[in-house]
Design a protein that fits this description.
With 305 residues, the protein is α/β, with parallel strands linked by helices. It folds into 2 domains: 4-235, TIM Barrel; 241-304. It contains 15 helices and 9 strands. Strands 1, 2, 3, 4, 5, 6, 7, 8 and 9 form a 9-stranded parallel β-sheet that branches. Strand 8, helix 9 and strand 9 form a beta-alpha-beta unit. Helix 1 packs antiparallel against helix 11 and helix 6 (116-129) runs parallel beside helix 7. The chain is globular, with a radius of gyration of 19 Å. The two termini are 37 Å apart. Belongs to the dus family.
């Protein structure tokens, strides 16, 4: 379902941002593959209601991948069995890159990069249990040191159909310079498709593809307040103000459909990003921070943008 020959664009899983409304919007404006926010396998098994809402997809999300995080093989298996019973999921991705301390403390996320044997067992558990078309992993270059080829081979040997590589180690967080050459090393070490991730924007997308020789690109933080980036990369031209306004309003409407009236206040964080760099942005943010009325918020968005 994912045609890597066409160098597809993925939306990266972003905690607190890549929910159903954002994914619905980017799918309409150039994104090829969407991925859920990271979902804890333990939470899916023991606190199902909230996690199951995070799994929900928009009708336009095809292909749609669900990303899970975990380390306990029994809970991983149970989580995958739950996802097997949900239609519309085209693949299950394992998070092996999250650098957040509370995730690492549980030996999950990027902590799996310290124990490649167990990383392989987790991927193998997903692969053998899943009834979905694809199994994949999102990794970093390493935990403290860069070992991209070893990690990539471990994922391939465990049965991953493709991998996405964030071009930093866990120690590099989100501030170290992205090492695209290291992604290329991983790409050369395996036969499965490799997706490049990390500080990719409309200006450097072609450079990243050529440098890494990757089969696809995954866009993360550059899409926040800028979901038209997928259209920019594909068309290699700027997006008109009219289209930007259309996208922002479509995003707002999708938030209301998904969250109800609560979507008005939740959308403020997106409006803060959308308004960055624009004239009168500070006063606009101050104003919307006090608005809870749906119609008034929509009017303010229409007038400002």
């Amino acid at each position: 379902m994912i045609d890597f020959a066409k160098k597809p664009l993925f939306l990266a899983p972003l905690a607190g941002f890549s929910d159903l409304p954002l994914r619905e919007v980017v799918k309409n404006f150039g994104c090829d593959v969407t991925i859920s926010e990271m979902i804890s396998a333990n939470a899916l098994v023991y606190e199902g209601k909230k996690s199951l809402k995070m799994v929900q997809k928009s009708p336009n999300e095809t292909p749609y991948i669900v990303q899970i995080a975990g380390v306990d093989l029994n809970n991983i298996k149970k989580a995958v069995e739950i996802l097997n019973g949900i239609d519309g999921i085209d693949g299950i991705d394992l998070n092996c890159g999250c650098p957040v301390p509370k995730v690492v403390k549980q030996e999950s996320g990027s902590a799996l990069l310290k124990n490649l044997d167990h990383l392989k067992r987790v991927i193998e558990t997903i692969k053998t249990t899943s009834k979905k078309p694809t199994t994949s992993a999102k990794i970093r270059l390493g935990f403290d040191e860069k070992i991209p080829e070893l990690i990539a081979r471990a994922c391939q040997d465990a049965g991953a159909d493709y991998i996405a590589i964030h071009g930093r180690t866990r120690a590099g967080g989100y501030t170290a310079k992205v090492d695209y050459e290291a992604i290329k090393i991983a790409k050369e070490a395996v036969k499965i498709p490799v997706i490049a991730n990390g500080d990719i924007n409309a200006q450097n997308a072609d450079f990243v593809l050529k440098t890494t020789n990757a089969d696809a690109l995954m866009i993360g933080r550059a899409s926040i307040g800028n979901p038209w980036i997928f259209a920019q990369i594909k068309d290699a031209k700027s997006v008109s103000g009219a289209l930007k306004k259309q996208i922002i309003l479509a995003h707002f409407d999708a938030m209301i459909r998904y969250y109800g009236i609560q979507g008005v206040s939740i959308f403020r964080k997106h409006l803060h990003q959308y308004s960055k760099g624009l004239s009168e942005a500070a006063s606009f943010r101050d104003e919307i921070n006090r608005i809870d009325d749906l119609d008034l918020m929509r009017l303010k968005i229409e007038n400002f943008f």
